[in-house]
Amino acid sequence: MQSQIVCSGCGSNLLYPRGATNVCCALCNTITQVPLPGMDMGQLICGGCRTLLMYARGGTSVRCSCCHTLNLAPAPNQIAHINCGHCRTTLMYPYGAPSVKCAICQYVTNVGTGNARAPFCVT
User: Fold this and answer.
1) C-alpha–C-alpha distance, residues 52 and 31, integer Å
2) pLDDT for 81-90, tens place per residue?
3) Which of 8, 49, 63, 100 could be disulfide-bonded to 93 (CB atoms 3.0-4.6 Å)?
4) What is the C-alpha separation between 10 and 29, in angstroms, rounded?
5) Cα–Cα distance measured from residue 106 to residue 110, given in angstroms and rounded to the nearest whole number
6) What is the DSSP secondary-structure string of 48-92?
7) How far apart are CA 108 and CA 26, in angstroms?
8) Among candidates 75, 51, 49, which has minimal Cα distance to 61?
9) Where can this protein be found (predicted)?
10) Could you report the per-residue pLDDT of 50-78, keeping only the tens digit for each?
11) What SS3 class is residue 100?
């Protein structure tokens, strides 16, 4: 079974066999250390092409291997609040999310651009 990790050099997604301690990127030859078992991985959606990206929590940015957009990683525990657009219940969601679904009435409230993260593009 294979796992995946983000290259610490170019941000590409790398596949590696379980049990490996480090992975060499075929694109940039950077050696990326595999996180210890139990280390928390985060996910975010690329602001350039909407691809799901994985990264080791604690990282500050993630480069998309598809469109090469450099995405800012959310700081840990950044939680925002909004009232449900239907039942007015206070909802908590990760900062930067485009919408949040109410667990009570199932209504999806659009967050708007007030707390959206703009992708940081490097050409």
Assistant:
1) 23
2) 899 999 999 9
3) 100
4) 9
5) 13
6) TT--EEEEETT-SEEE-TTT--EEEPPPTT-EEEEE-TTT--EEE
7) 41
8) 75
9) Nucleus
10) 888 888 777 788 888 889 999 888 776 67
11) strand
What's the angle, vertex CA 71, arms to CA 66 and CA 72, rounded to 5? 160
* Letter string b/e over residues 21-41, b meaning 16 or more CB atoms within 10 A of that residue's CB: eebebeeeeeebebeeeeeee
Q: What's the DSSP call for residue 27? A: T
Please return the burial class of 96, using the count of CB atoms within 10 Å of its CB with bins 0-12, 13-18 and 19+. buried
Greatest alpha-carbon pair distance for the chain in Å reads 53
Distance between CA atoms of residues 38 and 117, nearest Å: 28
Question: 27: number of CA atoms within 13 Å, CB side?
Answer: 14
